[in-house]
Amino acid sequence: MHQARLPATPSSTGTVLRLTGARLIDGTGAAAVDNAEVLIDGDRIIYAGPARNTGDHPEATTVDLKGKTLLPGFIDTHVHLSLSLETPPAESAARFGSERVLAAARIIHDTLMAGITTARDLGGLDAGYRRAIASGTILGPRLHLAVAVLSPTGGHSDMCMPNGTNAMPHTQGMITVDSDDEMRRAVRTLIRSEADVIKICTTGGVSSPSDTPHDLGVPEHQVRLIKDETARRSGQPVAAHAQGTAGILEAIRGGVNSVEHGYEIDGDGIALMLEQEAFLVPTLSSALRVPDPANVPAYLYEKKVQWSGIAREHLGKALKAGVKVALGTDAGVCPHGENLKELAHLVELGLSPMDAIVAGTKHAAELMRLEDHLGTLQTGKLADLVITEIDPLTDITLMADPANIGAIIQGGRCVKDLKGWLPLPPTTTTFTAP
Ligand SMILES: [Zn+2]
Predict the structure, then answer these.
(1) What is the CA(161)–ligand 1 centre distance, in A?
(2) Among candidate residues 2, 3, 1, 113, the one with its CA nearest the CA of residue 374
(3) What is the mean pLDDT of the chain?
(4) Under CATH, what is the fold of the domain 16-72+375-432?
(5) Statement: residue 434 has pLDDT above 60
(6) How many Å lie between the centroid of ligand 1 and the Cα of residue 77?
């Protein structure tokens, strides 16, 4: 069985670093450890736990972080880093390709600065962005990519207006697939393009003008077909955009690894997800967000009001029933750079602050099949850490503000250090210039 791709970041300076005095929330869900010690050698953690009085690694640089909290780098399993709410469609259509790429690079940077050291782009980005991050050309989260979104003609990924004109001709990665043969070919083509996850739509959506969450999309038998196809390769997980009850059930019965959104999940869906240990990615940052009616068409405002109410009720039940939750925001459909607002939304719908943190760390890494390397602060894992002065267990809403994410270490490299806490040279880019 092949492993999931581990996205690279540039190699660290090789310093041995001993972080002392801070409180440790390791991402496993275990109680926080006061006066902890985290020892980092190069890009890996070689110890994380209560402070010891051993004389090992005398060459280590010791950093006193008393009064601060150490957390794993967070993982957002549902973003669209090439989409932005800020750009009206007409302005977007007038852009040069270079402007689009640079705008995406800026968003990728801001996502990292929000505390997201790993992200899963569920449609829009190609593997060139991952290469640019690995080579150090731009700063950004480690990336898993869906590359494109699959739905039938007239479904959620069909950007054509009723007259047949593509309303979003510059958006890469929206593909329509109808027959079984087309589906097989589409999945094989995506895997050739380095897709790490296959993103399908088993229902319509809230934001699309010509379909609704109650419309069905990719059918159950094709979900199985995709699972068979990915099993022949490296077992890439299947993520289903699924909002209405019927399409959620088709997705789960077909064997998806994650239900994205899941707004109208019912008791049968919850029971099946528990049985199959499938992940729910509730994207509350988008689900609960009702736009200003002055800025959106009337149909969209009404749909958003209706469906945010449905989502609050049904997802609340799923969370309380103990369905495995992985953090995902759908950023691009909601604002970028405040991804950890999702933690507060998860708490609002019933998770404890500790369980919300686990959703954004350990569980998210499991969904991406990267749990051997990422998601928790434990011996042997990659040194992806967030350091903050706030107490997320007391007021998790404060995690939403990137100004409260004081420092970030990614693969042993300092990529953010607002207050000079770390002895490592911070990595600067175009975007961090004054
Ligand atoms: Zn999405």
Answers:
(1) 20
(2) 3
(3) 94
(4) Urease, subunit C; domain 1 (2.30.40)
(5) no
(6) 10
